[in-house]
Please model this.
Amino acid sequence: MKGPLALLSAIAALSLAGPLVAHLLGADPAAVDLLARFAGPSAGHPLGTDELGRDTLLRLLEGGRISLTIGIAAALAAAALGTAVGLAAGYLGGWTDRVLMRLVDAVIALPLLPLLIVLAALDLNKIGIPHALADSPGISLVRIVALVVLVGWTTAARLVRGATLVTRSRDFVRAAQSLGAGVPHILWRHILPNVTAPLVVATTLSVGDIILLESVLSFLGLGVQPPLASWGSMLSNAQATIISSPLLAIYPGAMIFLTVIACNLLGDALLQRFDPREPGRV
Amino acid sequence: MIRFATIRLVEIAAMLVLMSFVIYGLIGLMPGDPIDLMLGADPHLTSADVARLKQLYGVDRPLIERYLAWAEAALSGDLGYSRLFSAPVAATLPPRLGNSLILMGSSFAVAFAASLGLGIAAARRPRSRFDAAVNFSCFAGVSLPTFWVALILILVFAEGLGWLPASGTGGEGGGLADRLRHLVLPVATLTIASVGGYTRYVRAAMRDALAQDHIRTARAKGASEARVVWRHALRGAMVPIATILALSFGSLVSGALVTEEMFAYPGMGKLIFDAVMGNDYNLALAALLLATAVTMLANLAADLAYAWLDPRVTYR
Model:
């Protein structure tokens, strides 16, 4: 558990320290220098420059900040939505449960990537979002988080519903009910604490999946839009010149890989810690 | 069982109708509409022409009316005309679906065989160094971005070494060998992407199966280790394995989208992406519905396989 956590913290800390590194190097990640395109490593540019002469290291840190922000924000939002749905379905039962679980099954049964591509290609102006907002530079971040939440809430919903069903009939819940506790109180104080462990594991694992999904969408040109950069969109840019400067494509891919594997290993380590049936193995 | 399958089929049909309406509505919200494109292609069009074209194509009618018109034509077998391919949509889809199934089927077979071997070997020596190595490789496999793997394979085997072609399916005259050569890199990419997940399932299922009482009985009565593993344990482990595999097969049709795009492989995934990006509404709609139908049918097959493999499971 220490290894992946350290790796993840290091990537996050470096990404957050991007502006500081930029200051130390005396460079700006967005600064274009057409005379120094595809430059090799130097003191000013430790990893060289990209197709527009921008510093590769700074762009990687910048992209990391965006990829990690999307991954964590979307994972938390999806977990929150899924928890709400799962609590409602598991605790209320009956028709609510049937309808909500049908919805979960339906979403899981869909071919998600093609549908996400349609949703990512929608014209925001046509949906009725004001021009100023639809054309603002940060909107691609909001859009991608929204898309991920739309497909990502089902895991948490299923987990929380299952745990709620088990907890609902336990004596301490019955006791709270007979003492006249309200539904919100029971859900918050008695049910939710008993579903946190699987939820934490699932959310940790989902951060990695979301970063992968974001990188795919950005790679296809449907995710993070310029001037913002994520690892996926950097790879997309590097694809055109991959033969002459393969390193530009290798760095962001390696960053995605390291981040995702750290999330997955951390999630697995947490799973083993929480699950008494899985004695600590590798 | 038959009743269960019938109910599910009716549900799938209902879901497809619902999805066709949702996708129809969504596609209308994508940037650019066909009239704008015609206007761009021919600057001589006047606003009167535009109004006439809008009426001709029915763009001025309400959404539900247009959808019903589309649905009526679709049910009689007319899926419209694809602008990108200059051909009827109904003629464009089958060869693409065939290509996708070839790609998916091959990578599925390779990944399944590899995961069986690795998963069983790892489960037989729990907590050994080999087990740890397999487990770590699985995590690495599921953490690799597919498009990055594809890029690196192209860089090494197509550009660097020049051993294999990087795109397409091979020409008409190339024959089977050429066709296979074109399949190697896309299949390798998809296999790398999926084998890690499969192996984890096989390993977990085999570890559960090997811990059962009847395995101890089999060993005690002197059955050979090979017989214990392959006849006694695998039989029980196949139930969860088959379910997971059948479930993943559903996502394969569209899951290969990135791989097909990277290798310019003319399958369903690339078709959907190109149709959406190229504002080819008729094609995008039909292709998305076909992908949805295949996915849901594969999920149904997974449920049925589960009941078939495990006599304890019954569907009412």
